Amino acid sequence: MRVIGLMSGTSYDAVDAAAADLSTEDGTLYLTPLGMVGEPYPDDVRAALAAALPPAATTMADVCRLDTLIGQAFARTAVRADRELCDGRADLVASHGQTVYHWAQDGRVHGTLQLGEPAWIAEAAGCPVVSGFRPRDVAAGGQGAPLVSLVDLMLLRGRPGVPAALNIGGIANLTVVPSGGDPVAFDTGPGNALIDAAVREVTRGRLPFDEDGALAAAGRVHLPLLERLLAEPYYRMPWPKTTGKELFHRDYVRGMAAGPAYAALPPEDLITTLTRLTATTIAAALRPLGATEVFASGGGVRNPTLTAMLRAELGPAALRTSQELGLPAAAKEAYAFAVLGYLTLHGLPGNAPRCTGARGPRVLGSITPGRRALRLPAAPSRAPHSLIVR
């Protein structure tokens, strides 16, 4: 089956599409990558999305407009991916949508909302669409994240030592496979979210992020501010746990850096301190799990200052990228949702209950038919346990 995975993360800068040929044989899922394309959100859509996200207030009219505009943006990217990567022969689109709210409270997730109406994708691309992956896991008592942990487990099983997968998007999350123990997965805290928010603030919107980590490289860590940031209760919560921009947003940075002690803090020092926060909290999450190798993906791997800090914090654990597992760092999550969509269409579970906290395995998402009558394929004789990238 030829599947397109669509993803837009918590940085909400673009829609990424990755296409793959997928097949199952004797308990192994084989993935042949076909490439990736990306489409930035139109400026007006990104501005409307930024204006509606927490801690801002919004209206149902805004939600309706965003659901349509985001769905249309995902549809355009799917059509382009089908044309450029699949020779017009895509069988399925798996759309993560755009997370706009993750209702986490008192250690539980009560609900989650992703926008991007799948009917626009099905209408434009013509093939069925699987969407809405997270709510079923939440309904089963899970955190609804990180859902990519199932794909991580399939990729990492059988590796020596204690392998870990790390994604540094707006929020950072990890999956660790201890030798002989149960897998662990959770959000560690901010990835790029606070760094990006501070960069936009100090440059008055001129820069959307710290390109090549240049601002962080030019500053110094402000230890009193770092200690204040590290006092955030989320870091000491037990896993499984998830978070988002409902907590880690622009006003969070403003509140933490408020007061006379930080009034003269140079902008570069603020960026450096927030970059160190991301590296420190990721390493602090990995250290007690005994990770021996860490395969990183997401936008954070393009920040050399962040990766250098993280490498120093991790000590003997080797920091690598997901490219060494066959999936480019920029496309790994899109490929992961292509896999999850494939599993859903075959009636197979897409969550890892020990990682999300759900009561058991669940088939995820909803299916929107394409132009032809929907005929679900037969499920494999047994669910795939491992993933091999060809």
UniProtKB/TrEMBL annotation:
InterPro entries: Anhydro_N_Ac-Mur_kinase, ATPase_NBD. ATP binds at residues 9-16. It is an enzyme of class 2 (transferase). It comes from the Bacteria. Pfam families: AnmK (PF03702). One of its GO terms (molecular function) is kinase activity. Keywords: ATP-binding, Carbohydrate metabolism, Kinase, Nucleotide-binding, Transferase. It catalyses: 1,6-anhydro-N-acetyl-beta-muramate + ATP + H2O = N-acetyl-D-muramate 6-phosphate + ADP + H(+). Its EC number is 2.7.1.170. The keyword Transmembrane helix does not apply. Pathway: Amino-sugar metabolism; 1,6-anhydro-N-acetylmuramate degradation; Cell wall biogenesis; peptidoglycan recycling. PANTHER family: ANHYDRO-N-ACETYLMURAMIC ACID KINASE. Catalyzes the specific phosphorylation of 1,6-anhydro-N-acetylmuramic acid (anhMurNAc) with the simultaneous cleavage of the 1,6-anhydro ring, generating MurNAc-6-P. Is required for the utilization of anhMurNAc either imported from the medium or derived from its own cell wall murein, and thus plays a role in cell wall recycling. Belongs to the anhydro-N-acetylmuramic acid kinase family. This is Anhydro-N-acetylmuramic acid kinase. It comes from Streptomyces cirratus.
